Amino acid sequence: MYIAASRTSDLANGTGRKPALRRVAANVVALGVVSLVTDISSEMVTAVLPLYLVLGLGLNPLQFGLLDGLYAGATAVVRVLGGHLADRWRRLKAVAGFGYGLSAVCKLGLIAAGSSVAAIGVVLAADRTGKGLRTAPRDALISLSSEPGTLGRSFGVHRALDTVGAFLGPLVAMGVLALSVGSYTSVFFTSFCIAALAVLLLVLFVRDHPVSVARAGVSLRAAVNLLRSQDFRRVTIWAALLGLVTVGDSFIYLLLQRRWDVAATYFPLLPLGTAGVYLLLAVPLGRLADRIGRWPVFLGGHAALCLALVLICGPQAGFWLAVVALGLHGVFYAATDGVLMAAAGPLVPSGLRATGLAVVQTGQAAARMLSSVLFGLAWTLWDLRPAVFVAAGCLATVAVAAAIVKPVRP
User: Fold this and answer.
1) Do residues 174 and 121 make contact, with C-beta atoms less than 8 angstroms apart?
2) How many other CB atoms sit within 10 Å of the CB of residue 201?
3) Largest CA distance in the chain
4) CB neighbourhood size of 17 (10 A)
5) CA triplet 165, 301, 139: central angle to 5 degrees?
């Protein structure tokens, strides 16, 4: 089964030749559906967690930054391990499936944690461990199932399906909260049931992609040796530097809530603005990246985030500025998430694809973990606006430097 995205043939243009159809493989679509269902589950939790921790448990910005950093950065510890095991065992699907299963079980862990901040931190770390284990093998499956010239489009299709789940998750969370009269436990249990369904879909419909490579050629030393390649090393370093100056999603939504005094009832709707734009632009920007270059599109996404930060804390506070800021946040994700993997994938041998992508993801995740802690500290010490403007200035500086260096060659 293929989703065909064919162009007008050269024969119709009088050239007498027929080009190969540009297609997105069925395996990519199946992985996208699994991610769709998984994201409904995870975004249900993500949508209510900032409000639960800050308003429900009374955490200050620094405490929330530490937990948010843990939530974002725990994946950094295990991404290379997950990619290495998937490549060494030649079982991309199995390692990814274990990661999906671990994250599903952690939804029940949130119920058991109750109001204990320490226990919640442990559960969030375990949940992100599951994400870290599954991400590199999943992206390697997408990369290996696609033609080199359509990587941007393939990742765009996957991320678009993934974002449908991100769009539906907050709506489901709001529905569960309404029916359960504000019970967070009901949200976490429903999230677990949906995550379990995603694991079942993975088992039934996703095909593995074995690679003929000797096990001896897949080692942690081989992962380190990937960094000897100048192109791969530069992509990894600049992705990490940009991650270090990126403000996390939860902080973006908290900034919007504080600036526009969004009621707690409507707080879970804020991610929908991001998800809606991401859904609309993931495939077009993926195709644009295939056409004009993946690095310019990647940097363009960071420029959109920088502008969103300026609008959030600018002198004006109109409703439409909040809408535009959320839209720019969606542009940021559509132009960066899958595009970075499409840019890094061809720089890695097929037998080390999961390991190589994990190295890039690890650097980025570790940097974002530190970024969350630093931004939470800056907000606590300097207040909201100074912290945001410093973050926007740092992001603009690094993005301009990355544009000058151009680590990815056309």
Assistant:
1) no
2) 18
3) 70
4) 9
5) 50
Neighbours of 356 (CB within 10 A): 29
306 pLDDT band (50/70/90 cuts)? Answer: very high
**CA atoms of 354 and 141, how far apart (whole Å):** 8
Mind listing the pLDDT tens digit for each residue in 210-241?
654 444 445 567 667 778 888 888 999 999 99
Q: Which residue, among 205, 167, 197, has the nearest Cα to 101 in the 3D structure?
A: 197
pLDDT tens string 235-260: 999 999 999 999 888 788 888 888 77
Look-up: residue for tokens 């088992």?
203
- 7-44 pLDDT per residue, tens: 333 333 333 433 333 578 889 999 999 999 999 999 88
Q: How many angstroms separate the CA atoms of 306 and 311, rounded?
A: 9
**Contact (Cβ atoms closer than 8 angstroms) between residue 313 and residue 259:** yes
Cβ–Cβ under 8 Å, residues 344 and 294: no
CA distances from 270 to 48, 165, 261 (A): 11, 15, 12
Yes or no: say if 258 and 252 are a contact pair by the CB < 8 Å rule.
Answer: no
Separation in Å, CA 5 to CA 19, 24, 110, 158: 12, 8, 42, 14
Q: Which helix (H) or strand (E) holds 43?
A: helix 26-51
Distances in whole angstroms, Cα of residue 83 to Cα of each of 39, 49, 75, 109, 229:
21, 29, 12, 25, 18
Distance (Å, rounded) from C-alpha 74 to C-alpha 22?
37
Structure tokens at 304: 């959109």
Per residue, the 3-state secondary structure of 297-351, as one string, reads HHHHHHHHHHHHHHHHCCCCCCHHHHHHHHHHHHHHHHHHHHHHHHHHHHHCCHH
Distance of CA 354 to the CA centre of its chain: 16
Phi, psi of 24 (to 5 degrees): -110, 120
* Closest of 251, 275, 328 to residue 40, by C-alpha: 275
Q: Residue 404: CB partners within 8 Å, gap ≥ 6?
A: none
The pLDDT of residue 116 is 79
Whether residue 322 has pLDDT greater than 70: yes
User: What is the band of 118 on the pLDDT scale with cuts at 50, 70, 90?
Assistant: confident
Rounded Cα distance between 233 and 230, Å, is 5
pTM of the complete model: 0.71
Question: What's the confidence (pLDDT) of residue 20?
Answer: 35
Tokens (6 digits) for 262: 């969004």
Determine the residue type at 177.
Answer: L
